[in-house]
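Work Package 4 report. The design task specified in the project plan requires that, given a folded chain encoded as structure tokens, an amino acid be chosen for each position. We show below one input record used in the internal validation round.
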């Protein structure tokens, strides 16, 4: 893709890699660069730095944006701990990551509003998402809940409630899934063409023998959580890369420490705060007894009223390292390191259509085992064997609702009812929707075996009045989500019928007529002399529409009507 005159969004542009990416972009002459960071001061500092380096770029060429892209917009500038300490904010956050992704959830997210406002053609994501999510320490949150449960008393129910909510806010997978869902939908609406993620292995490329811990067992569970989230993130991006209407999706995953931003001497800060020096002379040492207090009371150590100063190397998001620390982790046989400029070079090359060999999404595409010619050759043989057994045992194999989802079983049985009642797709098209509804209702009324098979696998049958439901002991839709009694509305009936009820209403019969018409129309547009490999679904495929094959027609619905076509063979 040509970067010239394109709007580029660099997420995490203040950081080490983000800054290098912004500089590399300048040789490609984009239209503008939006530079984001978590804090306002960081975003403005990054823009000021770029303006000083590229004074001819134009007044509004570099644009700052700041905030937490993992929250809703109104909470983007609130510290995470402040969110967790506020019951109202906790409830909002849980609602945003646990419940279904609705339009309100999407539109109120900070990420959606950012993308919708600037509509960047190119998005380069330099945020260490795995660290942002996994270093919330799910293990400590779980320990807090277990402790509260162990000491549960009527008097501390509020504390227990808060601790459980904190755990829910820390769950890795819901946060990651929601983040990718919002990213995909937001970029789709914004018209983004290409998305490049700078990912992580979580261990700097090292294995389970990594010697660095967070005071737990080796390897560190918190560190492995980061790797687990990073891997899950990659697989979700792998799926996004297989989605036809998604932007081109790539991920560069460095497997080494990333360094460096600058080398200098001065105050050493941790999380933005200078490290204060304390002293504890030998005569004031504590005596170890049966217990040990981790967080010491005031007076144990005396402040010296001085701040820690030393020689340091600034590695950006990974923090400030001493010479000893940097040498230890970068020495051959440890993490070693890669420069941000090398990463930025790969990013630019991949955006422009080059092949660096470092795009992990492409690597997964090439390494996964795809559907095979042998399996495709044997496909019809398997179907014919099943058809022969159906004939031998006088039974039709329609749906069991073991594979799921319920919508698959619902569509299969609706198509099967049309087959039993009207035999061909042409007959269905020529019949009135009301006639189809009446005939299928009579079929359900008279055929106890068929009726029993449908409702016994968890698929209810909605009769034409839209109020009467035939159901078994268990149903798949609506799903049980902690509430056994749900309010019934016209909308809820429509939603449930769409997702997992055999729907005998006239409106649904009209929908089936239109489906068959669309399938026939696509074939009628083909010339009779067309015998090339260009088209899969021709007259021969549909047997000249003299039959209704439930599996075949439902596969067509998923592919064409619901735009669920497999992108890569």
């Amino acid at each position: 893709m040509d970067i010239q005159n394109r709007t580029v969004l660099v997420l995490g542009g203040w950081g080490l890699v983000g800054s290098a990416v912004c500089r590399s972009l300048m040789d490609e002459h984009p239209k503008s660069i939006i530079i984001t960071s978590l804090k306002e001061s960081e975003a403005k500092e990054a823009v000021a730095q770029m303006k000083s380096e590229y004074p001819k770029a134009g007044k509004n060429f570099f644009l700052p944006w700041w905030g937490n892209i993992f929250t809703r917009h109104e909470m983007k500038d609130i510290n995470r701990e402040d969110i967790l300490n506020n019951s109202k904010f906790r409830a909002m956050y849980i609602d945003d990551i646990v419940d279904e992704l609705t339009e309100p959830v999407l539109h109120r997210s900070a990420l959606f509003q950012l993308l919708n406002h600037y509509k960047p053609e190119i998005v380069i994501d330099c945020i260490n998402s795995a660290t942002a999510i996994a270093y919330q320490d799910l293990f400590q949150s779980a320990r807090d809940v277990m402790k509260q449960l162990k000491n549960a008393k009527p008097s501390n129910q509020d504390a227990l409630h808060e601790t459980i909510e904190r755990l829910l806010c820390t769950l890795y997978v819901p946060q990651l899934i929601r983040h990718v869902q919002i990213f995909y939908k937001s970029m789709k609406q914004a018209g983004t063409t290409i998305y490049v993620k700078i990912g992580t292995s979580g261990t700097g490329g090292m294995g389970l023998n990594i010697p660095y811990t967070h005071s737990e067992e080796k390897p560190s569970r918190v560190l492995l959580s980061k790797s687990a989230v990073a891997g899950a993130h990659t697989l979700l991006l792998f799926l996004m890369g297989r989605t036809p209407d998604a932007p081109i999706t790539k991920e560069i995953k460095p497997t080494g420490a990333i360094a460096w931003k600058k080398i200098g001497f001065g105050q050493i800060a941790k999380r933005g705060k200078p490290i204060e020096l304390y002293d504890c002379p030998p005569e004031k040492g504590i005596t170890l007894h049966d217990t040990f207090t981790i967080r010491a009371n005031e007076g144990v150590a005396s402040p010296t009223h001085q701040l820690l100063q030393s020689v340091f190397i600034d590695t950006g998001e990974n923090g400030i390292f001493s010479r000893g620390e940097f040498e230890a982790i970068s020495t051959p046989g440890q993490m070693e390191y890669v420069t941000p400029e090398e990463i930025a070079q790969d990013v630019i090359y991949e955006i422009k259509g080059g092949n660096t060999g470092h795009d992990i999404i492409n690597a997964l595409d090439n390494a996964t085992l795809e559907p095979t010619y042998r399996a495709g050759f044997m496909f019809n043989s398997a179907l014919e064997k099943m058809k022969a057994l159906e004939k031998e045992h006088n039974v039709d194999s329609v749906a069991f609702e073991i594979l799921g989802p319920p919508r698959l079983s619902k569509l299969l049985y609706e198509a099967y009812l049309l087959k039993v009642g009207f035999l061909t797709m042409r007959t269905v098209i020529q019949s009135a929707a009301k006639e189809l509804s009446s005939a299928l209702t009579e079929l359900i009324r008279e055929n106890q075996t068929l009726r029993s098979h449908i409702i016994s696998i968890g698929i209810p049958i909605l009769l034409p009045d839209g109020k009467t439901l035939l159901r078994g002991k268990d149903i798949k839709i609506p799903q049980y989500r902690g509430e056994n009694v749900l309010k019934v509305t016209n909308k809820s009936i429509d939603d449930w019928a769409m997702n997992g009820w055999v729907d005998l209403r006239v409106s649904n019969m009209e929908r089936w007529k239109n489906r068959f018409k669309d399938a026939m129309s696509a074939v009628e547009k083909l010339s009779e002399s067309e015998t090339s490999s260009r088209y899969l679904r021709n007259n021969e495929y549909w047997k000249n529409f003299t039959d209704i094959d439930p599996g075949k027609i439902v596969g067509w619905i998923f592919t064409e009507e619901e735009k669920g076509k497999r992108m890569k063979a």
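Residues 262-334 form one domain. Validation will be extended to a larger panel in the next phase.
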